[in-house]
Write a structure and sequence with these properties.
This protein has about 400 residues and is mainly alpha-helical. About 70% of the residues lie in helices and about 5% in strands. Its main location: membrane.
Length: about 400
């Protein structure tokens, strides 16, 4: 049994996860060493050493969640505990939160900072996947099956928005929407939901326009101005995006060489977090950017494939939700760096510096690896119907019987 379980893991996603993390560690060192000395008077390897610890903790957590059966997360008591902790964490930010870059999003725990909104993204994935999996029999019953879980999604997005952290709130909302679209609802139910959202948007839009200053801080408005005219506002709002353009343009195809970036010498703010891809483009050129994009694309597409092939609705939505989280966050970060969308302050998955981000992504990848293992085990070792007069079908495999999780 143990050998069958080991053979059932999808080692390709594990390998890509590790390669991206190691590549990110190298680039965190390269992009942060000047900033560590000039801005904080730290040793040049300060952020590298912290990120190395983050990755070690993250890999241990990844192994645990890759082994622990994902079906246990469907338990009602676990869901109540998880959602309660998520909401409590967001309330704690409002009371004792630490402000960085105009957002009160962190809680200081000793020498470390924790960003609860990062964990909320994963909580939303697990909660919505479990609730909609349990509602499959009446998934198209709008009042009973469709709408109630959306209250939780909108509530946590609102709490993240008032930190204010518009980028994370928007990502969380999009992740929730992706799970809803893949929950098994009919086109009619989804159309009703979209129509309801449009109506609410039309009703609230005049109020938002009148209270524009309340909904968008000076930092938010500055990012929009910088997005529209980065070089015209180079000395102020457009500084980050303009220097990002310069980094990407100067890198060309081959790049300037590892460690040879000019923009990280104090010109580009946050070179090791939000704008690490600009440094990758400057130092390693198209090849470095291509490596990151291919790795992220593989994890997203592989997660979607696992979700589509999974026979368990809960596992399917978990896999698609995790893939959506990686894909959406990557797009928003890369869109901000390249000027496709306004800058949001969102990090690049697996590559950027950040303890909370690496920890959440490691948990997510562990869950995805476990879902893939269950799927592969069923495909390879599921018992076949022995009646030759009936079509062959997969029945409940021994692995699920052994753990016997409540559906």
């Amino acid at each position: 049994m143990f050998k069958k379980i080991i053979k059932s893991y999808d080692y390709s996603i594990i390998a890509v996860y590790i390669l991206l993390c190691l590549f990110g560690l190298v680039m965190v060192y390269s992009s942060s060493m000047v900033r560590a000395v000039q801005w904080y008077e730290y040793p040049p390897d300060f952020f590298y050493q912290k990120q190395k610890i983050n990755l070690l903790i993250g890999f241990i957590v990844f192994l645990f969640f890759a082994i622990f059966p994902y079906k246990a997360y469907r338990n009602k008591k676990f869901l109540i505990l998880m959602t309660g902790m998520a909401i409590l964490g967001l309330f704690a930010v409002a009371v004792i939160g630490h402000t960085t870059n105009n957002a009160q999003s962190w809680i200081s725990v000793g020498a470390r900072k924790i960003q609860p909104s990062e964990f909320v993204k994963l909580s939303v994935i697990i909660y919505l996947s479990a609730v909609y999996a349990n509602k499959q029999r009446y998934i198209d019953h709008f009042n009973k099956g469709v709408f109630p879980p959306i209250f939780f999604l909108l509530f946590v997005c609102f709490l993240i928005k008032i930190e204010p952290d518009n980028g994370t709130a928007f990502i969380t909302l999009l992740i929730g929407m992706s799970i809803i679209l893949c929950s098994g609802m009919s086109f009619r139910s989804i159309s009703k939901l979209i129509l309801l959202c449009l109506m609410i948007g039309l009703v609230l839009s005049p109020f938002i326009i009148m209270k524009f200053d309340k909904f968008f801080t000076e930092g938010n408005k500055g990012r929009i101005v910088g997005f529209l005219d980065p070089f015209g506002t180079y000395q102020n709002e457009g500084n980050q995006l303009a220097n990002s353009y310069l980094a990407i343009g100067s890198g060309g195809i081959k790049g300037l060489g590892l460690g040879q970036s000019v923009q990280k010498l104090g010109y580009l703010p946050e070179p090791h977090t939000d704008f690490i891809m600009a440094i990758i483009a400057e130092e390693l050129g198209v090849f470095g950017v291509g490596f990151v994009l291919l790795g992220l694309a593989y994890l997203v597409l592989r997660g979607i494939f696992i979700g589509i092939r999974s026979r368990d609705s809960f596992g399917s939505m978990l896999a698609i939700g995790i893939a959506s989280m990686i894909g959406i966050q990557s797009f928003i970060n890369l869109g901000g760096v390249s000027g496709l969308i306004p800058i949001t302050g969102v990090t690049l998955p697996f590559i950027s510096y950040g303890g909370s981000s690496i920890l959440v992504l490691s948990i997510a990848m562990g869950i995805l690896a476990n879902v893939a293992m269950f799927k592969n085990f069923e495909d390879r070792y599921g018992k076949k119907n022995s009646n030759p007069e009936q079509p062959s079908r997969i029945v409940q495999p021994t692995f699920q019987q052994k753990y016997n999780f409540r559906q």
